[in-house]
Design goal:
heterodimer, A: about 170 residues, alpha+beta, four-stranded antiparallel sheet, B: about 240 residues, T-fold, seven-stranded antiparallel sheet
């Protein structure tokens, strides 16, 4: 089977973080991301802090600037799910989301288009046979494909008429 | 084999050359029959399945056929099964393969515009006598003198499997009963042996074959199907004549 990979790069506004996501043929389609945290407003985080030293402070604070238990960490991101700006590519729109837990990126996903022009390279777009009206024509042809004829049927078949005409 | 074979050569070659090419094709098809028939006791296939011929003494052709049958068994989820009747019977593959090879031999012998139609399974190359792609009609599954689709191809294969001629000759290995649901399956692609095997396997699957055939599109195989109750389906890339 043909394999195709697509690389998507998204820039997360507000955090100046570049996240690269490589999509392979076996990657599952993600069409609904978990509840996202909007970076501009830093909504609340569901994840409790893993650093006990901060708990007391976190419990007192109840600010809108999210994840009361957000830990100081290398990435500088509070826990939660972050969605990047939806970016248009030649074959559709891609939006990357990352999940931050305990200050580390724990997963990354991307939604990618499953319909339209991109369906031809989207591994999850499955071709379908389309239903149509069964036609009954008498067109001129060079040869006929059908279920294998018995010798008797051959004699009266279209193919026999073609063979005779060519002789 | 008992199958009628129609051959047309459209090359601009001397009559004697064309005649020789046709003779060579017939000789090859007879040779295939001799070596692969399950009805003649001293065919290679019969000797192999009686254990008289070890695998390493089999001809490259027979080894290829055995390999191909194994691959098809896997790719069709067991609906193509050379052991379906018990002892090895690779006829379902050999039929299309022999014509595929015959067409290759014609090309090697100088014919680049021809078709070989063996019992409704066709391999064509190049242009027809009018200098256009070969026009192939798909027989209507109820009316013998009508066509349901007309295709146009230069290089390629068209294979049709149907229940309207020899009746219930295709079996569903899961139910152990004659296949039901589809009356005619036509597969178009580059290799006649595969197109033929796919058409027969899809017919055996019944209506589930329609979805299975859709997956073959990615491998370059288009199809046209008619159900027992007269509904027609085709893949969008089917090379219909305009």
């Amino acid at each position: 089977m043909r394999r195709s990979t697509a690389a998507a790069v998204g820039t997360l506004t507000g955090a100046a973080l570049i996240a690269g996501v490589r999509l392979s043929v076996s990657a599952p389609v993600v069409t609904a991301a978990p509840p996202a945290v909007d970076l501009a407003n830093s909504g609340s985080s569901p994840a409790p802090s893993k650093k006990p030293a901060h708990n007391k402070e976190a419990a007192k604070r109840n600010d809108a600037n999210g994840g009361g238990s957000a830990a100081a960490d290398a990435s500088g991101l509070k826990d939660g799910v972050y969605k990047g700006k939806a970016t248009d590519y030649a074959y559709g729109t891609i939006q990357v989301s990352i999940k931050v837990d305990g200050g580390k990126i724990t997963s990354a996903d991307a939604t990618y288009p499953a319909t339209g022009l991109s369906a031809s390279i989207n591994p999850n777009a499955i071709a379908q046979l389309k239903e149509e009206t069964l036609e009954k024509q008498s067109a001129k042809v060079n040869t006929v494909s059908g279920a294998t004829l018995t010798s008797a049927s051959y004699r009266t078949s279209l193919q026999a008429a073609l063979d005779a005409a060519g002789a | 084999m008992g199958t009628v074979v129609s051959i047309e050569l459209a090359d601009d070659l001397p009559e004697s050359s064309l005649a020789a090419l046709v003779d060579d094709t017939c000789a090859w098809l007879h040779e295939v029959d001799r070596r692969f028939s399950t009805y003649s006791d001293d065919s290679e296939v019969c000797r192999f399945r009686r254990g008289e011929l070890p695998l390493d003494a089999c001809s490259p052709d027979l080894r290829h056929v055995l390999d191909a049958c194994a691959d098809l068994w896997r790719d069709t989820d067991g609906y193509f099964d050379a052991y379906a009747t018990g002892p090895l019977d690779p006829s379902g593959y050999v039929k299309g393969w022999s014509v595929e090879v015959a067409s290759a031999r014609l090309a090697a012998g100088g014919s680049h515009r021809h078709y070989i139609n063996a019992g409704g399974d066709i391999r064509m190359r190049g242009l027809n006598p009018d200098g256009r792609p070969w026009r192939v009609g798909i027989r209507h599954p109820w009316e013998a003198d009508k066509l349901s689709w007309v295709l146009a191809l230069t290089d390629g294969a068209v294979a049709t499997s149907g229940t309207y001629e020899r009746g219930e000759h295709v079996w569903n290995p899961r139910t152990g009963e004659p296949a039901r649901g589809l009356r005619s399956v036509t597969v178009v692609g580059s290799d006649l042996a595969l197109a033929d095997a796919y058409a027969t396997a899809a017919l055996a699957m019944g209506e589930a074959g329609i979805a299975w055939l859709a997956k073959r599109v990615a491998d370059g195989y288009e199809s046209a199907v008619v159900t027992d109750d007269g509904r027609a389906f085709s893949s969008t890339g089917l090379p219909a004549a305009v």
